[in-house]
Amino acid sequence: MGASRMASRDELLAFLDEFLEAGRFRDYGPNGLQVEGRREVRKIVSGVTASLDFIEAAIASRADAVFVHHGLFWRGHDGRLVGWLKQRVQRLLGADLNLFAYHLPLDAHPTHGNNARFGARLGLAADARFGEQDLGFIGTTAAAWSLEGLQQRVVAALGRSPLVLAGDGRPLRRLAWCTGGAQGYFEAAIAAGVDAFLTGEASEPQAHLARETGVAFLACGHHATERFGAPAVAGHAAALLGIEHEFIDIDNPA
Ligand SMILES: [Zn+2]
To answer: What's the CA-to-centroid distance between 46 and ligand 1, angstroms?
Structure first.
């Protein structure tokens, strides 16, 4: 460990594509190698988002590759490399740094993904899945939790207080969760019969749905809930390939 063995970029890409079953998902952007850098990788740095601050920190940390949940190219972009996007791409290319990005495959992975790792930190394991492409996780508590108890688990797991839209105060036995901006999954979670739903963000409609259905809704932070999958997967890949790994967290209150 920590020795300077090298892996090839292509070996790393093949491992990640297969481990995350990247070809199985319909996604909002390309999964896999988004920007090609040097051929040999001694160190991979993981993070949540390929922001300029993150790219600079990875370069300072002598990374050969970065692995993120939120890459650079999303559906809706018109493809022009100008402004902030030009800056990020220029830094990557200038440093010959590989950018690997996996979005939904990283949320969904059953043991190393964002949902699996966020659930584990709350003390939950999935026994069912729900929602589009089965991205949402559902688990059962051993003994019923109170809403206050669930809130305390979120604070302990993430170091921040969630926005809570209380339901009808029922004991919580069936819980659903999906990291990031999955507030739109709340209806599907309600339909699946759960007592509470946790995600990263909230929008206006969820407050009404929580009141009218009695199902509690907790918005725990988009970045905060998505910090666990990238280091789990990149760390696993690095350990298997004998290369170095470091997780760099760029704070984000949203
Ligand atoms: Zn996200």
So the answer is: 15
Contact call for residues 203 and 167 (beta carbons, < 8 A): no
* 184-230 per-position pLDDT tens digit: 999 999 999 999 999 999 999 999 999 999 999 999 999 999 999 99
CA of 182 to the centre of ligand 1 (A): 9
Tell me, in angstroms, the distance from the centre of ligand 1 to residue 164's CA: 20
Interval between CA 221 and ligand 1 midpoint (Å): 10
Burial class (CB in 10 A: 0-12, 13-18, 19+), 83: exposed
Distance from the alpha carbon of residue 3 to the mean position of ligand 1, in angstroms: 33
Q: What residues have a C-beta under 5 A from ligand 1, the ion?
A: 180
Model pTM score: 0.95
Main-chain dihedrals φ then ψ at residue 34, nearest 5 degrees? -90, -35
Q: Among all chains, which residue has been given the structure tokens 């979005």?
A: 103
In degrees rounded to 5, what are phi and psi of residue 224? -60, -40
Per-residue pLDDT reduced to its tens digit, 122-170? 999 999 999 999 999 999 999 999 999 999 999 999 999 999 999 999 9
CA–CA dist 169, 148 (Å, integer): 10
